[in-house]
Design a protein that fits this description.
EC 1.16.3.1, mainly alpha, disordered C terminus
Length: about 160
């Protein structure tokens, strides 16, 4: 198989995205913990671990292709003044991942890189599950009675 530069580009973009996601989820976990929402913080830390696993798998694929991994640019963390606002930002992050992984899987398959196509397809499905879980969590928060204000910030 000939190495396709666009596949390498998708792998690099995906790696940057995953490291950015780790940063965002850890920041959100820290905010949730500061607001006294330890169960929420624990869930967000678990999301960060899952995103780090994605980064490890992308790194391994880049190395298998003989490319040096390098997350080129991390996107700024999107925050908010409530747990729901944090989760909305996380849902937007997952939507970006879904678009990236769908496009990357389709391109990789077109150029005959089945290993990368399978990796991107697997990441797509995992991110889809994350997006569903976030949507359910947001729905639960919307259905719950209004949360008390913690330290002057809506939790």
């Amino acid at each position: 198989m000939r190495l396709d530069p666009r596949v390498l580009g998708y792998l690099g973009r995906a790696l940057s995205h995953e490291y950015g996601a780790v940063q965002q989820y850890l920041t959100h976990a820290g905010l949730a913990a500061a607001w006294g929402l330890e169960a929420g913080a624990a869930r967000l830390r678990e999301e960060a671990r899952e995103e780090l696993d994605h980064a490890e798998r992308l790194t391994a694929r880049l190395l298998d292709l003989g490319a040096m991994p390098g997350a080129s640019r991390l996107r700024p963390v999107r925050a908010g003044a409530s747990l729901q606002a944090l989760l909305e930002a996380d849902r937007a992050l997952e939507a970006e991942a879904l678009a990236l992984y769908r496009e990357a899987a389709e391109h990789s398959a077109r150029v005959g890189d089945t290993v990368s196509a399978e990796l991107f397809a697997a990441l797509y499905e995992e991110e889809r599950a994350h997006a569903r879980a976030l949507a359910e969590w947001i729905d639960e928060l919307r259905a719950a009675p209004a949360a008390p204000r913690l330290g002057g910030i809506d939790a």
